Task: inverse folding
């Protein structure tokens, strides 16, 4: 448990396979009898260990190295320090600083959902869904002086013109 806690403290998430490797190394290091092969943990040992110790098993999608590095607190602090120096150097006012976030979506495509099934026959029946291949981009913008620009939806093949 201490090993898992230490890894979590440094923002590392050990996997089930890594836990099994760690335990197998301990078992091999403690191995005494040269006439028998060393004991190793079984295929389900790590999962049962996690249930006994109430360790949460969570499915994670691996991040790209650049995205992982972007979460480094030292790099973030360094970036904001550089930003502060540039704001002072060039006398940038709050009304001139904006943050824009964009999100790409597919129109008509939903997320996974749980459905209610009454009969066993209905469980074998799968309903098809029509998905559109149309996409759009939604932007949200806020200024450092707290002014908010309403969301902008950009459709493919359309233009947005200011009046």
Result:
């Amino acid at each position: 448990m201490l090993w898992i806690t230490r890894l979590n403290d440094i923002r590392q998430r050990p996997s089930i396979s890594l836990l099994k490797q760690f335990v197998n190394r301990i078992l091999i290091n403690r191995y005494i009898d040269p006439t028998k092969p060393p004991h190793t943990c079984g295929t389900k040992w790590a999962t049962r260990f996690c249930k006994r110790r109430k360790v949460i098993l969570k499915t994670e999608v691996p991040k790209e190295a650049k995205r992982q590095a972007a979460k480094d607190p030292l790099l973030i602090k360094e970036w904001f320090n550089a930003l502060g120096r540039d704001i002072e150097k060039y006398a940038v006012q709050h009304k001139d600083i904006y943050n824009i976030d964009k999100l790409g979506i597919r129109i008509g495509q939903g997320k996974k959902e749980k459905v209610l099934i009454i009969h066993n026959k209905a469980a074998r029946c799968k309903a098809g869904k029509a998905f559109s291949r149309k996409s759009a981009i939604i932007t949200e913008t806020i200024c450092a002086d707290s002014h908010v620009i309403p969301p902008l939806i950009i459709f493919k093949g359309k233009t947005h013109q200011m009046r």
